[in-house]
Amino acid sequence: MNTYVRPALSLALLMTLLTGALYPLAVTGIAQVAFPEQANGSLVRDAQGQVRGSALIAQDFQGDGWFHSRPSAGAYATVASSASNLSPSNPALAERVASDAGALYRTQQGPVPQALLTTSGSGLDPHLPPQAVAYQIPRVAAARKVPEERLQALLEEATLHPLIGPPVVNVLALNQALETLGH
């Protein structure tokens, strides 16, 4: 019996040490050296060095003076990261989208962009299409008493053009740039 138990326990201990401690420490060390910004959460800091959020996670911006992120099924909490799992035929989803569309709709601007009404798969997507941000410019300009042209220029500066996929805007980065304009 001892001839089977001892090697099995030794192997279990060795594998636990390798895969549970040494491998994670090695990967963490390599990540810290090769990609320190990403390994530490892609944190976004203000001019004073205070952490304002992560470039990888959407935030809930309140008030007319800010560009708003797309809706989040998990209230922008990373622990609850997920989609709502409501099917397109679900009346609760239709009610929420209709309510949000009614609140965001501006007659002179046309239909509300879909990205401002629907959640992303993770519920935490920090990006919006430029059209969804542009739809918000009149509201933000009026609240901040800033010319719409200045906000349009800010939007163009903040628009990212990835190698694959359509252009996107990181809402946190855009709002940080907006903050430098003043209130």
TrEMBL record:
Domain of life: Bacteria
Main location (coarse class): membrane
InterPro entries: KdpC
Location in or out of the cell: Cell membrane
Keywords: ATP-binding, Cell membrane, Ion transport, Membrane, Nucleotide-binding, Potassium, Potassium transport, Transmembrane, Transmembrane helix, Transport
Pfam family, any one: KdpC
Membrane topology: Single-pass membrane protein
Chain's role: Part of the high-affinity ATP-driven potassium transport (or Kdp) system, which catalyzes the hydrolysis of ATP coupled with the electrogenic transport of potassium into the cytoplasm. This subunit acts as a catalytic chaperone that increases the ATP-binding affinity of the ATP-hydrolyzing subunit KdpB by the formation of a transient KdpB/KdpC/ATP ternary complex.
Family: Belongs to the KdpC family.
HAMAP family: KdpC (MF_00276)
Subunit structure: The system is composed of three essential subunits: KdpA, KdpB and KdpC.
Protein name per its UniProtKB record: Potassium-transporting ATPase KdpC subunit
Lineage: Bacteria, Pseudomonadati, Pseudomonadota, Gammaproteobacteria, Pseudomonadales
Gene: kdpC
